[in-house]
Amino acid sequence: MSNINRRDFIKVSGGLLIGLTTGGLSLRARAKEKVDMDNPTVKALKYVHESPKDDQNCANCMHIGGEAGQEWRPCALFQNKLVRSEGWCTAWVKKPG
């Protein structure tokens, strides 16, 4: 388990709170651009376009929105941005079901 400093924790927590309260429909309507790899939230969550874990990727994470099978989909953690379905970040949580 990696250590996270207070500043990164606040960034991640703020991003999670904003992202989770946005709602799936509005995420689909707003998300049009791919995430910027220089974004502080992207860096804090260590997002990558190619998952380093065989069984974990954005497509099977509970934070993903949009239609299954699309290469780029909206994510509740990165407000108004698209992530790659094959991507991954440290906030990955298995999608229920």
From TrEMBL:
High potential iron-sulfur proteins family profile domain mapped to chain residues: 29-97
GO BP, sorted A to Z: aerobic electron transport chain
Keyword Transport: yes
Keyword annotations from UniProtKB, A to Z: 4Fe-4S, Electron transport, Iron, Iron-sulfur, Metal-binding, Transport
Any GO MF annotation of the entry: electron transfer activity
Superkingdom assignment: Bacteria
SUPFAM superfamilies: HIPIP (high potential iron protein)
Keyword 4Fe-4S: yes
Family to which this protein belongs: Belongs to the high-potential iron-sulfur protein (HiPIP) family.
Function of the protein: Specific class of high-redox-potential 4Fe-4S ferredoxins. Functions in anaerobic electron transport in most purple and in some other photosynthetic bacteria and in at least one genus (Paracoccus) of halophilic, denitrifying bacteria.
Subunit note: Homodimer.
Protein name as it appears in the record: High-potential iron-sulfur protein
Source organism per UniProt: Bowmanella dokdonensis
